[in-house]
Amino acid sequence: MFSFLLLGSYLRAKIKFLQNFLVPVALIGGFLAMLMNESFIGKIAPYLSLPFDIDRLGVYVYHLLAITFIAMAWRKPEGEKRGRDAVAMGVSSSTLYALQGVVGIGLGFLLMYTIYPGLFPTFGAIAPLGFGQGPGLTFSIANGWETNFNFKHAGNLGLTLAAFGYFWACFIGVPLVNIGIRKGWATLVKDKSHLSRDVYTGFFSKDSKRPIAGKLTTTSEAIESFAFHVALIGLMMLITYIIMFPIINLLIGVGAAGIASTLEGFFFIFATLLTLLARIIVHKIGLGHIIDNGTMSRIAGLSVDFLVVCSIAAISLAVVIDFIVPILVTGVAVGLVTLYFCFWYAKRSYDKFPFERAIAIYGMLTGTINTGLILLRMVDPEYETPVAQDLVYTSAISLPLCAPLLFMINLPLKGVEVVGDSWQTVNPAAYWQTLIGVLAMYIVLMLVYRLTGLVKFKRPLRKIWIDD
């Protein structure tokens, strides 16, 4: 994976097409690795393929996700209070995520009862997971369905639809930014000339002013500061493991494999909550100065880059071909709904920087918070607006609001019975309970959004973008 990141960096620095679409290096490296695995080039020229262990790559994705969230949880939040627009971003992104769930799950059931009768009932949840939560969480949850309920290739499908989300972020998002700049929707920039060559190539030039990565909090004679911060992350993973896995084994022992699978998929959430508690304790006892936000951000960034490479490298061509219709139907539908409503809400929700906020949320809901920041940088290159900080705040608001959805997507499992190495439906009512539950969640969030005055239904309602 190291080699593919380096090769991706070289290609990004040299190829104009990749530069124009600001394709992240991790995405380039991941697709290169995917092409080299046995299910792609191995079918044409086996002697050229690389023998990737797909299951091992999945394990890497699972743990890299936890590392990313733990590193971010160790960071001390900025003391600055966020304004109304930041809250509106949090509620709108949660509402959109619920809408992604309604569309994905609804289409999944439609396919299952029509042209794809053998489709597993939780398939429809994979698209909103992949788009809204990224490859790490999607694989983590889907792999649990595969392991405990015989949803064949679920983990790989999760990685595939997450990669589809990145496609929407880069190849639809970047042209959208260009359109917004041309039409004068962007607040700070009126053309692309403000973007330095460094942004396109991915490397700072010799004369560029380079940002500070972080500050040392330990003396090198005792321990390298970076190693100390990595050790803090490792400690929280160990504590989470010690607490969680006896509970998971107990649940499996009493026949609650479905609940155990859900808990295992949410390892990163429990790790994050424990880290937040640990951070509070560390600051209360006066040791907060030994943790550097910049260093933790670098570790999180490193983890995300390798997570993306591993997740895309693990995609199987055979699985994509077998599920091509459900992948396209749910992926295109969820992408279109996300695109439409991110911009429909913009001028109806945000008082300041509506286009910047819309493009940032669009990037986050088709990839990760990093893709949102990449798109935002095209219209706010120095992060002069509060949108970048508000996007981080948005994640904090949306986590509790979206948590019910992460549990509801497992409700169809109540209607499934494992039979040997397959499965069968025993309670179809559980499927419809899921769809009704997700739809109810969307309606409740929409009511909260409307009644709090965070969104106003400005007319004409059919127009996506309302000109001033």
UniProtKB/TrEMBL annotation:
Keyword check for Transmembrane helix: yes
Key word Transmembrane present: yes
Pfam families hit by this protein: Glt_symporter
UniProt GO cellular component terms: membrane
TM helices/strands, residue ranges: 21-37, 57-74, 95-116, 157-181, 226-254, 266-287, 299-320, 327-346, 358-379, 429-449
GO biological process: L-glutamate transmembrane transport
An annotated Gene Ontology molecular function: glutamate:sodium symporter activity
Keyword tags: Membrane, Transmembrane, Transmembrane helix
Name by which UniProt lists this protein: Sodium:glutamate symporter
Species assigned in the record: Candidatus Zymogenus saltonus
Biological classification of the source: Bacteria, Deltaproteobacteria, Candidatus Zymogenia, Candidatus Zymogeniales, Candidatus Zymogenaceae
